[in-house]
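Methods — Computational structure assignment.
A single polypeptide chain was analysed. Its primary sequence is given first, followed by the predicted tertiary structure written as structure tokens.
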Amino acid sequence: MITFNKFFTAQQIHFLVRERFGLGKFLFPSLFLLFLTCIFACSATEPSSEVQNLHYQKDPLPAHHLPDGHFRNTDTLTPPIRDTMEVDSLVSTERTEVYRLPIVRGNEFLWADSTKSSATWIGHSTFYIRWNSTGIITDPIFSDRSSPVWFFGPKRGTPPGRALDSLPPIDLVLISHSHYDHLDKNSIKDIHKKYPRAVFAVPLKVAELLEDWGIPKGRIIERDWWETAPFRIFTLTFVPTHHTSRRGAFQSSRDISLWGGWVLEKSGKKLWFMGDGGMGDGSYYKEIAAKFAPLDFCFLPIGSYKPSRYTRVHISPRQAAQLHLLMQCKESVGMHWGAFGMTYEKLEDPPKDLARARMELHIPEKDFHVMQHGEIMEILK
């Protein structure tokens, strides 16, 4: 088990609770709720010896591996590229106020046509991808809150665009990292219960979490950066992003599992699910582009970027547009917005700022756009 060797001061805990869970200035209720969170959430463990034998006996360790089993970003030879679409002094001091956005229906016929492929936006970074006859879901979160507990934490403004029970079968689950808005315990367990043969593709040291939740080891693919895995007739590659990971309130849980995105290849087509991340110094993405560009379809985050300090770990819409061009994406869709209020931009800012960035960079709207909750669109044409 992990030894928690660094504790926060009361002031640091108050800041953490205020920043992550939006509990404002109520320090003592915040401390009480944080204590309850630790009871439920601080259960990270060291990887099993089998996983260690597979990934951690490398000599020397890869640069992003630390000797204590944690991970780090390595693209920091130059200062991270920060960006904002608005002067920080004009950004609200109140956390994003969420409200219900439209939920649409239609195009369900695409699910039944095995000659076509489609993407359905469920919300935030959750998409149901129907690639011919294979069902893939990304970072599934169907819960009301992005939190380890049901009674507090960032709450959805818009329900999931499609209920899990309404979707076609799920064969593959892609997980980018362990933050609560990308790795939701209840959603993972519900998917496994409904589709016990579904395979979960996860970063290093996330597999043990899933095993604790009842997912059999034989149903999990766990990969380091740049490692590949076969799935049916697909090739999956886990690729870097500039980000972090964390589950629990203690410093010891920070960066104990890896983070990244997934490139899927099949029959000459390539799709990139970026997951979550900042620009860093840009070198990770140049390396991905060198290996995989041009890409046929890209899922790129466009939210949680104001004020500008948040672009250390989240790309802005302008940076997403720059990545669209760098990767030579034939078509891209924006994600990581519209569900949870985690930073300080207005809920409607990400699509508006993306439109401005498209105009500045001469990108047609049809090439990089946003979807409505529940919308099904044809992809990989």
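Note: Residues 1-54 have pLDDT under 50 and may be disordered.
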